[in-house]
């Protein structure tokens, strides 16, 4: 089968682009030069398990940082006949995650751990070709050199170590009939996330400058990161840093901090000391002005106790700068980022700071949506384990018969339906980092004893295995249930309760907080940054903020976040979010709570004069939802996620839209 045999599919995947067509043609030439023939069967001889283990150990840092990112990436593509693959620099598959039914098909072409997917062995394919070209590569359908692989569509991005050397590749492979143009963007972002974590860990004892021309992009994947010794000698820069500086890592080796930014290190620290929230203004060699934050991740214990940077031998004249002025936006938000002015939240943070790093389990209580997982991530980000994985397990969302295998892992054939290669448990994935057990009150009683044993012995045994694997995890749990009551009713083990009950903190409901304005505006900015929009988000109108203050927020911060996401989309291109942009169910709920179901929303405001919302606001909203579904090619789940509403709401609004004029496009 040739590339010309399927012009429709090739064009759908972008093969019509001349640059991509040339890349595929060159890859086919290399494949033929390796002596491969299109009709050949794939090589079904993966390396021995002992060799695979050795290769994983050789890529241990890559493996450690990639696994949680792979889990997150897989959550984005689950049930799409796809799999996520990690390889080393030679194209050997180290680990994979995927839908069971697709894994069975992939196994027929040896797309599994231990298999070599370099071009020399598999011909043109996204993994081998990306590694050969050292660039992001899409190989779709008939682009594959071997005909046996042409049922696949593959998007792959190479992963660089902190010094710019290719150490592996991240790939999403699926059935070519399910090709989606956004898959490559997800792969690129995930690979960059792994690279930034590798970079941060490699230079944790050095000075890192995180910068971007737009201050709101600090802490996102697109920020530039450049590392120096405390004396100002250049060490390395990430991809975005090299792009913004306009120089490769090789060219940057000839530079110092002073030659790049026009300041001495002493002047930099003076600027940090005087700056608000640790953000300073710097100028790149190109003349572009950027916002920047300075960080030093670790210091000797004695210096850390004084809250200062260490003084290095090659930098005796560098002034000591308080650590509180340094930020670490590459990690998830830390505790300081969650302190938005509410006294109750500040009291919680003060308690947490006293136990972080002390091997004391933390229990976070609070209503649904109050930000318990966000708090857990902040604890991890500020802990000595921040370079390790953060693994979250929702005990309420996993089917009861799967919780044990999810937590502890399983061997091949451990139970009916088990994947052929077995599975790594969440507790083992969290080794060296933080394990977050959300909704711990919903864990089945018969598994609580095994969890207690694992925590006490600091070891797990996968299902179907006699081996014991020692683990080292920090534990954070959360629940919206009354555990004392569950213990009294025999629904929760008392011994496990006391094992988890180290420091207990309670997050206030959103309606009880005094910082609603700050939280709403912060969520709005975050949503705009995550959508990669170049423009500023619309403002929240004063009358909308007043409605927010009068609302009871049963879904708390999660509900507010979803509501703002929808309102931001509805107000796209406008300066303000007004009541016209708020979802009908929010407005209806507000009216019902105040016993004014029939009045316009403007009359819910103090001192408001009679008035009315646009008569067809519901129609406008329904049409916007239809447009979003259309933009996502009819994928209801994707549209619901983009709008921040439930699938049922999407279906209901689409029914309401029947008979309305359809949006153009």
Number of helices: 28
* First and last CA, distance: 35 Å
CATH H level, superfamily name of the largest domain: GAF domain
Poorly predicted residue ranges? 1-16, 297-331, 413-421, 609-617, 660-665
User: How would a textbook summarize the main sheet?
Assistant: 5 strands, antiparallel
CATH topology of the largest domain: Beta-Lactamase
CATH class of the largest domain: Alpha Beta
Q: Please give the order of strands in the largest beta sheet.
A: 2-1-5-4-3
Number of domains: 4
The number of strands is 19
Oligomer: single chain
Task: Please tag this protein with its features.
single chain; alpha/beta; Beta-Lactamase; Rossmann fold; five-stranded antiparallel beta sheet; globular; disordered N terminus; disordered C terminus
What does the model show?
This protein has 665 residues and is of the alpha/beta class. It has 4 domains: 3-196, 2-Layer Sandwich (Beta-Lactamase); 203-325, Beta-Lactamase (2-Layer Sandwich); 335-508, 3-Layer(aba) Sandwich (Rossmann fold); 539-656. A 5-stranded antiparallel β-sheet has the order 2-1-5-4-3, with helices on both faces. β1 (82-88) and β2 (93-98) form a beta hairpin. The chain is globular and about 75 Å long. The model is unreliable at 1-16, 297-331, 413-421, 609-617 and 660-665 (pLDDT under 50).
